[in-house]
């Protein structure tokens, strides 16, 4: 996952929250910052454990609802999961994922060909496609030699 220049992203986050009439609370800012600083695609529980260090009285429900709210206003994406808990991605730009089936790690990658896949006509007639993301399942470099 890429790291971000946090100040412009944080200002965009604040502006987007204001556009959606969401209060800019210290907890929401901390949750968003922690997500931007993560080198993973964290679960709500992972985010809760991180933010709880700064806000010991914060509840898991508050963190989870905040993440889902951020996804609802387009500030984060919910990553494709395969039977596990939801994972969150602050990178809302077009990109793709490799999901390691052994350790669960999700790796971002770009591929021009995947980004320009044509939507089949029958799908385009039934749905307004707003985003395309390819998810490859396999083994990451760490897990592959062990198998």
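^ Assign residues to that structure.
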């Amino acid at each position: 996952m890429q790291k971000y220049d946090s100040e412009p992203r944080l200002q965009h986050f604040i502006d987007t929250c204001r556009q959606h009439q969401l209060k800019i609370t210290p907890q929401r800012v901390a949750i968003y910052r922690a997500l931007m600083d993560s080198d993973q695609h964290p679960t709500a529980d992972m985010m809760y454990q991180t933010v709880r260090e700064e806000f010991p009285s914060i509840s898991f429900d508050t963190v989870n609802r905040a993440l889902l709210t951020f996804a609802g206003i387009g500030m984060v994406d919910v990553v494709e999961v395969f039977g596990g808990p939801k994972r969150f991605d602050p990178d809302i730009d077009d990109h793709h994922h490799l999901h390691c089936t052994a350790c669960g790690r999700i790796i971002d990658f770009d591929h021009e060909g995947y980004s320009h896949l044509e939507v089949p006509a029958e799908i385009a007639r039934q749905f307004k496609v707003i985003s395309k993301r390819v998810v490859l399942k396999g083994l990451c470099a760490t897990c592959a030699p062990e198998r």
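The helical segments are 6-19, 26-37, 44-51, 60-72, 112-115, 121-126.
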